[in-house]
Specification:
single chain, 346 residues, alpha/beta, Quinone Oxidoreductase, Chain A, domain 1, 15 strands, 28% helix, ER
């Protein structure tokens, strides 16, 4: 199979030919029809993820058709259209038994703990627990765009953030995660303030549901601007980027007893940010993390997509080739693209 492989962190990956994978007893092999290029892949390539062993094939947002099935799999067959969360559960640990596969004690992650989907084929383990059937109405590029950013945002806004109609929601960072969160919060009846340094990103944020925007590059005090727009502060605020400034601004944007959800990955120099804990205590704020979403929680999200309340296809940006994914991956830190970049040609 054709695949993108890197043998050294921070050095250009290469397009190469590798052996086709075979399914594990409890797994399947998926013919990849589309795979997203995500900033988490960039973090992996930079060496920020200790789970990655070299050489490595990146890619964790994928959709495709099942090409081979392990003998222990009972729920799936060849030809089924599927996607998969970027965190897979083992099915045996206490967290999995409680339905929390996204924080499984023995989780696997394609593109991180295992070779990923920047390839023609990818092997996925524990298929009966972790695969998600795709509606025929959902194209593969859109389905791939759900795999990390959209599902993470859905859980962050709906499950962790407990969004309610009429609330003010602030979203700091309008990349794929942020734009997904804006769309989901707006579809849930919230009023959304979008914050970014790019007017192009803010325009896209308005197109998917933001009622107000703040350009952080031109605003001396972002948190104060959000509090002014929302009449005292957001009820729910998300850091969708993962930087010290956006994390702190998100917390300071909240009104009393507000809820902050950390969605963006805090890595490298941002891994231990100084937080305004005095504000957290004095305002009785709640701080949550959000790490993907379980396969069994896809149903409500897919229902909102099928009835038109959510339109993730509006977030799909460039459609590129597998070879072009190399430059796209290495350039993720420059934030030059709008929407979700998806590989659709292998």
């Amino acid at each position: 199979m054709k695949a993108v492989l890197y043998e050294t962190f921070r050095q250009p990956p290469k397009l190469t030919t590798l052996p086709d994978p075979a399914p594990e007893t409890d797994g399947v092999v998926i013919k990849v029809e589309a795979t997203g290029v995500c900033r988490s892949d960039w973090h992996g390539w930079m060496g920020h993820d200790p789970d990655i062993a070299l050489p490595h094939v990146p890619g964790h947002e994928l959709a495709g058709t099942i090409a081979a099935v392990g003998k222990g799999v009972t729920r799936w067959k060849e030809g089924d259209r599927v996607t998969v969360p970027f965190v897979g559960g083992c099915g045996h640990c206490p967290e999995c038994h409680a339905g929390h596969q996204q924080v499984c004690d023995h989780q696997f992650q394609p593109g991180f703990t295992h070779w990923g989907s920047f390839a023609e084929y990818v092997s996925i383990h524990r298929a009966d627990l972790n695969l998600v059937a795709l509606p025929d109405s959902l194209d593969f590029a859109t389905a791939a765009s759900l795999g990390c950013r959209f599902i993470t945002s859905f859980r962050a806004v709906v499950d962790q953030g407990r969004v309610r109609p009429g609330e003010w929601v602030a979203v700091h960072g309008c990349g794929g995660v942020g734009l997904s969160a804006i769309m989901i919060a707006a579809a849930s009846g919230a009023r959304v303030v979008a914050i970014d340094i790019s007017e192009r990103a803010l325009a896209l944020a308005r197109s998917v549901g933001a009622v107000a925007t703040v350009n952080a590059a031109e605003t001396p005090d972002v948190a104060e601007a959000v509090r002014d727009v929302s009449g005292g502060g957001a009820h729910l605020s998300l850091d969708a980027l993962g930087a010290t400034a956006t994390c702190v601004n998100s917390i300071l944007s909240l009104r009393k007893r507000g809820r902050h959800v950390q969605v963006g990955l805090m890595a490298g120099e941002h891994s231990l940010p100084p937080l305004p804990m005095g504000r957290v205590i004095g305002y009785e704020l709640e701080i949550y993390g959000s790490h993907g979403m379980q396969a069994h929680r896809y149903g409500p999200m897919l229902a909102m997509i099928e009835d038109g309340r959510l339109k993730p296809e509006a977030l799909v940006g460039a459609r590129i080739t597998l070879e072009q994914s190399i430059d796209a991956l290495m350039g993720m830190d420059r934030f030059q693209t709008a929407g979700v970049t998806v590989v659709t040609e292998f």
